[in-house]
């Protein structure tokens, strides 16, 4: 079974299996996250919770009890607003004046898995357990992965809570909608009137 899963995976096997020997896999669950259509920040917060073990009643901040997290379809992740252009990653090479930058859109075209990894790592506490938790995170751009022989458990994302609008905001939104409808109706009336005048002139 392991050989079949390995042959079905066409990606970088060395990168996919890197650091597994340093993880005590006994008693850990293999949670699978489907990133297709998910918002980047919301998905990263759920992955960070599971990889820390905060969803377990035995959670302790000084122990690494998190489960293995496999994130699939990283290339189909979504972002809200204008983050594809406005969100920028910075790093420095160490040489004077060599401050590099890359937008989220360029990062998604180059390596979409790195965008999710950075989002998750920046939600983890910066302590000695951070590297061990990073090794439990396996991200793949597509739906293929080499862990088909493991007892995988699909993770169900919690429903997105939509906050109700305040009465003042709701009234303002209704006024804007009515205003837009009136402007559209007036525009249509002017167009119809113009057509009638042109028809009378030609007649």
Describe the structure using short key phrases.
ribonucleoprotein, Ribosomal Protein L13p, Chain: A, Ribosomal_uL13_sf, two-stranded antiparallel sheet, 4-stranded parallel β-sheet, alpha/beta, 8 helices, disordered N terminus, 203 residues, elongated
Report on the structure:
With 203 residues, the chain is of the alpha/beta class. It has two domains: 2-154, Ribosomal Protein L13p, Chain: A (Alpha-Beta Complex); 164-203. 43% of the residues lie in helices and 13% in strands. It has helices at residues 2-8, 13-16, 40-52, 83-86, 104-110, 112-121, 130-135, 167-202; strands at 30-34, 68-72, 88-92, 99-103, 137-139, 152-154. It has a four-stranded parallel β-sheet with strand order 5-2-1-6. A two-stranded antiparallel sheet has the order 3-4.
So, CATH architecture of the largest domain?
A: Alpha-Beta Complex
Strand content: 5-15%
Q: Say what oligomer this is.
A: single chain
Mean pLDDT: 88
Number of domains: 2
H and E string: HHEHEHEEHHHEEH
CA(first)-CA(last) distance = 82 Å
Fraction of residues in H or I helices? 40-55%
**Spatial strand arrangement across the major sheet:** 5-2-1-6
CATH class of the largest domain: Alpha Beta
CATH topology of the largest domain: Ribosomal Protein L13p, Chain: A
Based on helices, strands and strand pairing, what is the structural class?
alpha/beta
Describe the structure in brief.
Belongs to the universal ribosomal protein uL13 family. The chain has 203 residues and is α/β, with parallel strands linked by helices. The chain is 43% helix and 13% strand.
